[in-house]
Amino acid sequence: MQIDLKKFQETFFEEAAEHLSTMESGLLHLEESGSDNEFLNTIFRAAHSIKGAAGSFDFKEIVRLTHVMENVLDKLRSNLLTPTADLTQILLRASDRLREVVDATRRGEASSVPIDDILPELEAVLGGGRPSEAAVAAAVSLSGDPRGEVVYSVVFEPELEFFRQGQDLFLLLRELGELGEILSSECQRSRMPALEELDPELCYLGWKVRVRTARAAHELRDVFMFVEGACRLDVTAEALAAADAAAIAGPVAARAERRVAVDRRSESTSIRVPTEKVDGLINLVGELVISQAMVNQAVASLSMTPELEEALMVVQRSTRELQEQVMAIRMLPIGTVFNRFPRLVHDLTMKLGKRARLEIEGAETELDKSVIEQLGDPLTHLIRNSIDHGIEDPEQRALAGKPEEGVITLRAYHEGGTVVIEVADDGKGLDRERIRAKAVSQGLIREDQTMTDEEVNALIFAAGFSTAAVVSDVSGRGVGMDVVKRNVESLNGAISVHSTQGKGSRIRIRLPLTLAILDGLSVQLGRDVFIVPLLSIRQSVRPEPSDIKTVLGGRGELFVLRGEQLPLVRLSRLFGVAGACEDPQQGIVVVTENDGHRFGVLVDDVLGQLQVVVKSIEKNYRKVEAVMGATILGDGRVAFIVDVAELHRIATRRKAPDEDGRSADGGAAAPVQEEVA
């Protein structure tokens, strides 16, 4: 029977990516803290896991590279090498190359990534390694042998189902032999049945192997780490007195038992499921929510009995709980994307000759997987910007009375029904005069235009805007921050900047927990219903005649709310809805907010709050201005979901002058207040 290995290989590549991230974060910690046995063991296990699994699929290039890396890490664990900044850099480069090899192997192009240039660096480290005095002393005290060698008896008895689990005994025994000299190998046949009862797919044999090595007992146990739950394993140091052997073997065995228990618990409480299956389940639950709303709508006109009313409430509650549980499946800790940035800060500060560290807070905050996948690029731009433009050189920081090492803080936390992500630094902050002068020179604003600090800060998100004096491969082309804003808005989020010159900057991103479900306010326009995202709504007001002002010769309107003049958008005119209310006094103004700026949306009536399942318009039809999606109501009608960010751009479009000083619609770009009728 031909076995399809593709699904097993895909699991290997996913796990390899996780192990590579673990190695990278461990090496960065090692560079900061020096020798740390806990992190060295974690890094070693990650490399060992990749090597063992790659060997099962005969990925030779991965095995070659991880084997040499493993040897270097093993010498570090044994104090035969001292961790230095140079050695850490070599291992980081090796992990980068290993990542490239894994990715190329996934594409079927393993030979396209050379490793012969990095292997000599690692082998040179191995050739130059010398045992420290502490390592020699420890080995002699344990064994009484000046060479620090111990003879271990390794008894290995697999479970009967061992072969059916795809395990290979001889790979384990060969790896055991690489750790020392095999003195003897005895096959134990006590479980062998009679010939007529023998099943060729079961493993009846066991082995007792005597190994002479300078390695510790737990390192021999590590060879069998992937099969400890499927075998009986006993490692005993023969060269030690019985009491000493028990003193060493006891804690090691206890740790192994705890690890096996944790592995078994993890195995029983978590499974890997393809994203497509989860998406399909979410879609079905969305349809169930819509169907349940349609049932409620249909029975609303019937005479309700207490039994029917109670049954509907139970169904509604169960549907809501099911929806929340299914949505929770897609929720992942944001640390999965945060963990890539310590390496970015490390490499960029070295390149720019600066000193900075990254502090991460709230990595356990959960967010929808689809949102997390799109956060990588925006956060990369923001952190690069903080290092290049925010953090000063060590000399400049010292002159300003700051520590030479800057701090970049990446923070995530829940606020209401949203997740807030902040990228803050203690650098020099934004130079508003310089930003303003650059914006004037590029024609983004007029020289005499009055702007608040927040509006000046927001100029950094303009396309093509940059205050960098020199274009480099890090910054200066003006293609970073505008991309950040577009990406955040595509996630139905908002971004704002707060900065104090000389003290630093903080960029705040507010995002919905998920893109699949949305809490909204349903509003009436003629015979149609529209949904406005609830997070953007501040209040709703029925206007008085004096609250509505015309501007720009009747081409625009303002809504005056307690003395504040807000741009007003008539939703019915924007979408061409027939039969909608034309008299503002007969309608309701919904005050919404985008990026710190408020504006009014005129609708006929407010129907109420509801939770809707978001369906893509663009995927099924095409992009529609000011519409972010659609949903199906309980009566079967389709309702558009309003894009508040685009509505804000439409509301303020006439105030934004182009290069010749005219407004976007051809009118004069004079301040709005001067033309209020």
Describe the protein.
The protein is α+β, with helices and mostly antiparallel strands and 677 residues long. The protein folds into five domains: 6-130, HPT domain (Four Helix Bundle (Hemerythrin (Met), subunit A), Up-down Bundle), CATH 1.20.120.160; 136-268, Histidine kinase CheA-like, P2 response regulator-binding domain (Alpha-Beta Plaits, 2-Layer Sandwich), CATH 3.30.70; 275-329; 333-512, Heat Shock Protein 90 (2-Layer Sandwich); 517-675, Beta Barrel (OB fold (Dihydrolipoamide Acetyltransferase, E2P)). It has 22 helices and 22 strands. A six-stranded mixed beta sheet has the order 14-18-19-17-16-15. A hairpin with a 3-residue loop joins strand 10 (494-500) and strand 11. The longest helix has 28 residues, at 6-33. It is flat, with a radius of gyration of 33 Å. The protein starts with 5 loop residues before the first helix and ends in a 26-residue tail after the last helix. The model is unreliable at 129-147, 239-268 and 654-677 (pLDDT under 50).
Instruction: Briefly note the CATH topology name of the largest domain.
Output: Heat Shock Protein 90
Question: Which secondary-structure class do the elements indicate?
Answer: alpha+beta
Main sheet?
6 strands, mixed
> What is the end-to-end distance?
84 Å
Structure keywords:
single chain; 677 residues; alpha+beta; Four Helix Bundle (Hemerythrin (Met), subunit A); Alpha-Beta Plaits; 5 domains; six-stranded mixed sheet; five-stranded mixed sheet; 22 helices; 42% helix; disordered C terminus
